[in-house]
Amino acid sequence: MTQPQLKKVEITSAFWKRYRELVVKEVLPYQWDVMNDQADIKIAEDPQNNGQDKNSHAVANLKIAAGEMKGHHYGFPFQDTDVYKWLEAAAYSFSYHPNPDLKKITDNLVDLIAKAQEPDGYLSTFFQIDAPERKFKRLQQSHELYTMGHYIEAGVAYYQATGSEKALTIAKKMADCIDAHFGLSEGKIPGYDGHPEIELALSRLYEVTHEQKYLDLAHYFLNQRGQNPDFFEKQNEADGIDRDLIPGMRDFPRNYYQAAEPIKDQQTADGHAVRVVYLCTGMAYVARLTGDQDLLAACHRFWNDIVKRRMYITGNIGSTTTGEAFTYDYDLPNDTMYGETCASVGMSFFARQMLNIEAKGEYGDILEKELFNGALSGMSLDGKHFFYVNPLEADPAATKGNPGKSHVLTHRADWFGCACCPANLARLITSVDHYLYSVHDDTILSHQFIANEASFADDVTITQENNFPWAGDIHYTIANPHTRSFKLGLRIPGWSAGNFAVQVNGQAEDVAVTDGFVYFAIDAAATTIDLKLDMSVQFMRSNNRVRADVGQVAIQRGPLVYAAEQADNEAPLWLYRIDRNAKTESHYEADLLKGVTVVEAAAHREPEDPADADLYTSAAEKPAQDTQLTLIPYYAWANREDGQMQVWCRRG
What InterPro entries has UniProt attached to this entry (predicted)? Predict the structure, then answer.
């Protein structure tokens, strides 16, 4: 079997099946009601302070563009994308939860989108309804290509899930419209969108249609970015310098848009975090499809900068609320950070594409970190409340009393004026089956420990059984009825690299780790492999260049980063100290937070000073009381009473 092509993956993991069913039963219906302005929601606590009221109006915008309603556009220029990401999430859900009622809604939605699309393929409702004369004339802020890119992704997914030619035709017409307007030939626009997305969308469209022009167009957008650093400024001046589509967007520097220089010259991951990782995903996609080594080298540079210098222990990225952006290396404040849910979702996209290029376990490590921590924390356990910002330290008093921390919520919100995150997370969860395997020539890589049954060409099946992330015993059953020869690579996570065990057909084996993977030659009709990973509690420290975390420890067990909450511990939480050698215990509580393993660590707690004590006094050591600190998985915080939370705890 020279090409062990993946055919289908069925998720059997109890942990992920709960989330995937939650999306179908709660998240998708709830979000559909919100987008149709039929949900009783509050968005007054929007961390973006966008000033929106309780309406989304996203579906109504499409109806106005289609001539089914009258009125003006409401919301951001990219409001359409809420609908498109929701459609994509619904499309993925059909593979594991067929739903005729939902299918009627999505088919009707595709019909509405087709009706709203203009004859030349253009579709961005803000410009169609209220500013037709400004199409493609303020790309720094317009999000037109970003918006159409999100539909292209949804259209491809819907076509693959349902066979809908109409959905795919809409996507192709959009891409053809963009191709007709952009490029370096005479009469075309020699530019690109201020928010990367179209590059990865066109790559997906190429993989389905095999039409070279779509890949060429994606390649063009990547190569053209930064070639004319003043492109956006010139467009803004021609359009009218003060006619901003989004207030304040003109004030950001060029590197905020990854437009200060060509990609091949960019050395660090700068600017708006979501833009960066969407760009990186497109870069990796096109590099794989074209063999462009400059793009691949840029992927490596950006990856290393993000993962080694600009990422939180939970996988969240974006250090400041100003522009939702990266700042500088090792600047990782915990209580004023941003850590947007969309950025963690986008980092998952990037990691997946890098795994499709090369077999390096670090990509699988980061994907796992995002799936179980940074991204998953963006949604409540009931599926109806969401985080835009994902802090590592939070305090209701600080959120209320300090304007610099007002973006840090201590409970998830119903919805947001800028609602990019809820549907983005939904489409990641419903498509998580696409994130478990990568195939390289004659090698199948199994890089995520999410229980599943996978089928490949030549009737090969791989069944993975486990109770992950609570237990580290991973059992594989490989059925190879035609006794084809291929290799199977299993990732050894960085958190277990020094302590793991392998058995093949019941016999212990010593295996070498190569770039984070161990490999097995599969040529028998039936093979079993048992992998035992180290699930002991680990105390983690940061690089001491990270000022915010010096002298502190975080607790991790398996892939999960843990957090202390006021719900379990007497406030204020900053009075606790933990020794690196402290005794810990962990146990599973089935009735807590839908079932979690709780970690308890021996700790010391200083007594709180009286309210009338002097503000400053001598630094004599205060006696500390022996106690214990109770911690829960980070993704599950803010699902009980409102209160303080922190991931990092003082050491000593």
Answer: 6-hairpin_glycosidase_sf, Beta-AFase-like, Beta-AFase-like_GH127_C, Beta-AFase-like_GH127_cat, Beta-AFase-like_GH127_middle
